[in-house]
Amino acid sequence: MTLNNSSSKIAKTEAWPNNSWENTSEPLLSMQGIEKYFGKAHVLKGIDLECYRGEVIAIIGPSGSGKSTLLRCANLLEEPTTGNVIFKGKDITDIRVDINKVRTKMGIVFQSYNLFPHKKVFENITLALRNVLGIKKADALKEAEFELKRVGLGEKMDAYPSQLSGGQQQRVAIARALAMQPDMLLFDEVTAALDPELSGEVLQVIRGLAEEGSTMMIVTHEMGFAKEVASRVIFMDDGQIVEQGTPSQIFDDPKTSRLQKFLSQVL
């Protein structure tokens, strides 16, 4: 299954230059001094992270290292205890910002598909288009059809989630996020609940989005995928960014003993 983008309405952006995250332009997303506590648990410890348009950041690390919490802090599904999140030049941690409006431009896809089981596939996709963006029914249906074809599920418009495989449901969730025309996509372990064959379907879709130039942050346990698709890989442990670099730097020439130990266990 390949990503169908022959008639894509989303303009392709220039590929990330030289697989480097160093850039003099303004970042699309900037996370500054992010700390997060859950009670007494110190989950994120002073995270500084910038993401530029067209960049694909893969976040790897052991369970409990803070990867998913970091991703959720990016669009304030988890509010940082301290620190600032700047998106498109605006501090979205400011209480005056309409965070729901911001989230329409920063789509997130979770490990669980979060589809409404009593609604057909096209209804799952058009619901936010109509209720949040105020798009007319006919236009929302066209957008749903377009995005479903884009992820290889054009024939599933009238299916219910229960009639789909796990991989297909996850692709519907991706189509739903894409339909909002976001500036950035966040993926949180989207293949963790899938067997290898179904996981491959979903990774192929994300691979196609990367080739189009979509800006993405991906929490993943798929090391081969991270090495292939990412322009930058971030290794987290104990709530901190321990090491970051291009895929070749991280996987072929790790500098820290902690990353070396982690890779020896997962590769």
Q: Reading side by side through the largest sheet, how are the strands ordered?
A: 6-7-8-3-9-10
Structural class: alpha/beta
Based on CA atoms alone, the radius of gyration comes out at: 18 Å
Number of helices: 9
Distance between the termini: 26 Å
| Shape, principal axes of CA atoms | globular
Q: How do the SSEs run, as a string of H and E?
A: EEEHEEHEHHHEHEHEEHH
The parts where pLDDT drops under 50 for at least 5 residues are 5-21
Beta percentage is 15-25%
The tally of strands reads 10
Mean of the pLDDT scores? Answer: 90
How would you sum up the major sheet? 6 strands, mixed
Q: Helix fraction?
A: 25-40%
Provide an overview of this structure:
A hairpin with a 2-residue loop joins strand 1 and strand 2. The two termini are 26 Å apart. Helix 3 packs parallel to helix 5, helix 4 crosses helix 5 and helix 5 runs parallel beside helix 6. A six-stranded mixed beta sheet has the order 6-7-8-3-9-10, with helices on both faces. It has 267 residues and is α/β, with parallel strands linked by helices. It is globular, with a radius of gyration of 18 Å. The protein is built from nine helices and ten strands.
Characteristic key phrases:
alpha/beta; 6-stranded mixed sheet; 4-stranded antiparallel sheet
